[in-house]
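$ ./design --mode recover --in tokens.txt
reading tokens...
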């Protein structure tokens, strides 16, 4: 079943997450129509190779053309229209930057895998529960309801101001009419009656002015209360969700809803500001003793301007944190002289601001870091915000060509510090701009989450560990001295984040048994998840007992192994992986002979091994584990083929494959058959021919198991095998295969 078919079978709450990252940059109808073709391409490699990305883009356009021909015959007008629009988009937007579409598609496929993994996990962790609790959802609905009510109140006040203006114009006309009469006419009874009517009208005007000012005051108060409480909490929650999403957690939606709230509040405040300006205009035409406008209006104008300043300052956010396109799963880790991207948005979407706001990017502005390393940003670091580049029309700007460059120190050389020191340094990328609108000038500033600067890709794993620990432990966006005294982390939350590393990076998270093994690995004992606090040093700096590497280096090597060599097997759930040798024997001891499981090596970095159970003639159970396969060996032969072709020579017996059933009882070929790269190897004979007269050769993994009574290895073990053993092998394998296996 294709990945897209699995996505379509998800529950509605997961489908809503999928809907969030498909937009006009990569329309969902193309994902749907070309599902199998899209999934069969290596978009991640193309994201780092412009020539490959250009070929894939051209092939994508060809695929769209073929679909367009098909739907044209079916006369599907709507689909024809959409496909023509998509074709125009692909040719126009990505022709000059084909790697951009490769990055987008790669990210979409990765997010799909993460959501599929999350859907398959039966229990939510504490972090994910905290981000999705009902209190937060209720507050979101309340904010939207209150913003809508405020907008309505401001519009109703507009009508009151218009009524007040009409009433004043009538009063002004009647008053001037009386003033134009001769003195004798003013003494008539009719005029006196008119004067009484004017006095009543003036009383009404005074009442209406007070009423309008009161209504304006209430609207301002409601906006102030909403901004100070619920809207601020909503924005902080969104920023926290963004932090968690950056380290592999659930996707963080809600920015469009926040934009709607910010924009409506800004429109309401500008509407109130115009109402106050209209009152000032009415004041210049008519005032009187006890007039409330000159007393109350200045305070209200000052309050409105203050709220607008705060609203704009809070609306300037980093929509997408700094990230190298070459490492989309490792945001906030930046390598010197390598381009990164970052996107900002102004949540107040007003047409008057389109292309009017220029944003400048700097690094470590007015900030003292924990080291003497200093950086500058090269590339285009000033750009205008606009509504044209974003699929949803938001007012945003994306920097795509920034590069950090390390400056020389006063001594004339670049900073040179230990690897851990470098990867624990935090830096800040800042952005500043100025908004000039309706007589207001507002300076805006915001910053990215802390980033780690590396100069060598070998520093990436430890740098990513720093990013994980920081964003797990604090919601402070600018604590650059965090690693001077890093706090401990709750084990339950850390394990949840570690599971996210697997779900986001290799498409399948960890179950409770796998997490239990990691917990014991981290703590050296069985502990309560909820109470145990783990130190930063234990996670990333101290070597595991008896090993020459840390826990994180060990885990990162496993992630790399899965990604590059056993990804399909991992996604299918056939790699148990995290199980200790002791637990392994407990699981296998009661199983039938030939039952095996796959686990990651605890002693070799990036190694995977398999252990099978066998039964001796006396009925005793024995276990055999093969030497771990690392990326070097797996580059030569796919792991599924190794499992299929693996042979064991026991004493003088015929070579046979001892692997029969994947734990608990799945026939091996049923589990791995679809992942075999070719048909099982058959014995090659000279008559079979081969390239240029040679006998075709095969590579078969072979192990030799000595009897329990055998002496330890001696130099004689390295001599050629006996003629009788060789004869048995020759019946089943070609000479080339024997030579390759023995070598």
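writing sequence...
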């Amino acid at each position: 079943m294709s990945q897209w078919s699995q996505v379509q079978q998800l529950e509605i709450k997961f489908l809503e997450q999928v809907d969030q990252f498909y937009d006009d940059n990569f329309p969902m109808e193309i994902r749907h129509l070309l599902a199998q073709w899209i999934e069969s391409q290596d978009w991640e490699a193309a994201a780092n190779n412009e020539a490959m990305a250009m070929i894939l883009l051209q092939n994508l356009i060809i695929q769209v053309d073929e679909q367009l021909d098909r739907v044209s015959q079916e006369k599907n007008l709507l689909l024809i229209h959409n496909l023509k629009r998509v074709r125009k988009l692909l040719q126009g937007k990505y022709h000059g930057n084909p790697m951009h579409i490769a990055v987008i598609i790669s990210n979409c496929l990765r997010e799909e895998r993460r959501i599929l993994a999350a859907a398959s996990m039966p229990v939510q962790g504490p972090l994910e529960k905290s981000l999705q609790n009902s209190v937060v959802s209720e507050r979101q609905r309340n904010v939207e309801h209150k913003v809508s009510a405020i907008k309505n109140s401001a519009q109703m006040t507009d009508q009151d101001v218009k009524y007040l203006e009409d009433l004043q114009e009538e009063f002004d006309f009647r008053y001037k009419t009386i003033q134009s009469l001769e003195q004798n006419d003013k003494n008539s009874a009719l005029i006196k009656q008119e004067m009484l009517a004017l006095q009543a009208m003036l009383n009404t005007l005074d009442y209406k002015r007070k009423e309008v000012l009161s209504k304006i005051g209430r609207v301002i108060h409601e906006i102030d209360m909403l901004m100070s409480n619920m809207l601020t909490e909503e924005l902080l929650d969104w920023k926290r969700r963004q932090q968690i999403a950056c380290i592999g957690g659930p996707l963080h939606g809600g920015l469009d809803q926040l934009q709607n709230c910010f924009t409506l509040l800004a429109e309401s405040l500008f509407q109130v500001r115009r109402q106050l300006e209209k009152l000032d205009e009415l004041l210049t035409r008519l005032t009187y003793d006890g007039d409330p406008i000159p007393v109350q209006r200045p305070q209200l104008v000052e309050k409105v301007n203050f709220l607008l300043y705060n609203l704009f300052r809070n609306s300037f956010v980093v929509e997408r944190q700094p990230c190298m396109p070459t490492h989309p799963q490792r945001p906030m880790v930046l390598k010197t002289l390598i381009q990164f991207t970052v996107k900002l948005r102004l949540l107040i979407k007003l047409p008057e601001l389109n292309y009017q706001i220029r944003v400048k990017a700097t690094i470590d502005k007015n900030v003292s870091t924990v080291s003497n390393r200093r950086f500058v940003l090269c590339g285009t670091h000033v750009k205008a915000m606009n509504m044209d580049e974003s699929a949803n029309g938001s007012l945003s700007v994306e920097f795509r060509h920034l590069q950090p460059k390390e400056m020389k120190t006063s001594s004339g050389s670049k900073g040179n510090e230990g690897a851990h020191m470098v990867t624990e340094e935090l830096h800040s990328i800042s952005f500043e701009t100025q908004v000039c609108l309706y007589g207001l000038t507002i300076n805006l500033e915001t910053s990215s989450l802390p980033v780690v600067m590396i100069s060598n890709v070998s520093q990436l794993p430890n740098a990513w560990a720093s990013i994980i620990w920081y964003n797990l432990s604090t919601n402070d966006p600018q604590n650059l001295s965090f690693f001077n005294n890093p706090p401990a982390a709750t084990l339950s939350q850390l394990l949840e984040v570690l599971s996210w590393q697997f779900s986001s990076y290799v498409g399948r998270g960890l179950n409770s048994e796998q997490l239990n093994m990691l917990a014991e690995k981290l703590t050296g004992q069985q502990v309560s998840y909820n109470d145990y606090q783990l130190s930063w040093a234990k996670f990333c700096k101290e070597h595991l007992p008896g090993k020459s590497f840390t826990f994180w280096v060990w885990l990162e090597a496993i992630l790399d192994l899965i990604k590059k060599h056993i990804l399909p097997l991992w996604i299918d759930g056939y790699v148990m992986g995290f199980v200790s040798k002791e637990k392994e024997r407990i699981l296998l001891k009661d199983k039938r002979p030939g039952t095996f499981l796959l686990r990651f090596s605890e002693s070799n970095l990036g190694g995977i091994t398999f252990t099978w159970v066998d039964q001796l003639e006396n009925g005793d159970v024995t276990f055999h584990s093969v030497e771990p396969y690392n990326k070097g060996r797996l580059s030569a032969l796919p792991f599924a083929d190794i499992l299929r072709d693996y042979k064991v020579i026991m004493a003088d017996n015929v070579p046979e494959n001892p692997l029969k059933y994947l734990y608990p009882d799945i026939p091996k070929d049923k589990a791995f058959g679809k992942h075999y790269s070719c048909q099982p190897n058959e014995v090659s004979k000279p008559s079979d021919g081969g390239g240029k007269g040679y006998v075709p050769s095969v590579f078969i993994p072979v192990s030799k198991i000595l009897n329990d009574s055998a002496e330890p290895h001696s130099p004689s073990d390295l001599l050629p095998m006996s003629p009788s053993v060789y004869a048995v092998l020759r019946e089943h394998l070609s000479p080339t295969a024997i030579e390759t296996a023995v070598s």
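exit 0
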